[in-house]
């Protein structure tokens, strides 16, 4: 009940007038609110506190269950989920509001939990799905030997100016092939964050480097242009891609980019 109520509270505070059925979108990581509601930033803690209500179908189910609880215990009424929730005046409502605001003011403390190692022949329950599994002895394989590189790895450092020059030459090559990927335009639209440093102008490739970010923020652009730049300077770069679409996209821009599959590579 409190998870649903917290989501409805955030909706009333940061997107007043929106329908109750759309509150799940506040947890998605994207700001789907109308322009007039974007003056107040959605608290970052909401995504961590309300992870269970993130799927839209789960939210619809939980919202219906919320209405079953006793009316005097609820801060909101939701007679029609397509309409905004109706705020109720409760005797302890002010105290509950203060607790909600305190929760949203900061991210929850980091929770450390030791991993559960599955034993052979014992039935284990998968928390998220509710299913159970038994690990048979015949599928357990010996741990492979640790990988040891045969040669010392070189450190490759490039600047944003290097990326711009490479992107310009890639655009020139595309022009000859009657295509336009707008590499320079895409590179100039990026902002690189390394650790806690904002707008970094230099990046070092050494050992394993993970490129992370929301969809369509320029991860592929950075990877492709940096790989082309590295190959032109006689470096060998291995790019591990996590899905089939990314593999096909990478191959379409030219160069030797093969899909890598095996243990530890997601799909």
Number of helices in the DSSP assignment: 8
As a percent range, the share of strand residues is: 5-15%
Name the shape in a single word: extended
Radius of gyration: 25 Å
In round numbers, the mean pLDDT is 79
In total, how many domains does the architecture comprise?
2
What is the element layout, followed by pairings?
Layout: H1 2-14, H2 45-49, H3 56-66, E1 76-77, E2 86-87, H4 93-104, E3 123-125, E4 132-134, E5 156-159, H5 160-176, H6 183-188, E6 202-205, H7 219-232, H8 244-252
Antiparallel strand pairs: 1-2, 3-4, 5-6
Can you describe what's shown?
- The chain is mostly helical.
- 33% of the residues lie in helices and 7% in strands.
- It has a two-stranded antiparallel sheet with strand order 1-2. A two-stranded antiparallel sheet has the order 3-4. A two-stranded antiparallel ribbon has the order 5-6.
- A hairpin with a 6-residue loop joins strand 3 and strand 4.
- Helix 5 crosses helix 7.
Keywords:
267 residues; mainly alpha; 2 domains; 8 helices; 6 strands; 33% helix; extended; disordered C terminus
Question: Short description, anyone?
Answer:
It comes from Lentzea flava. The chain is mainly alpha-helical and 267 residues long.
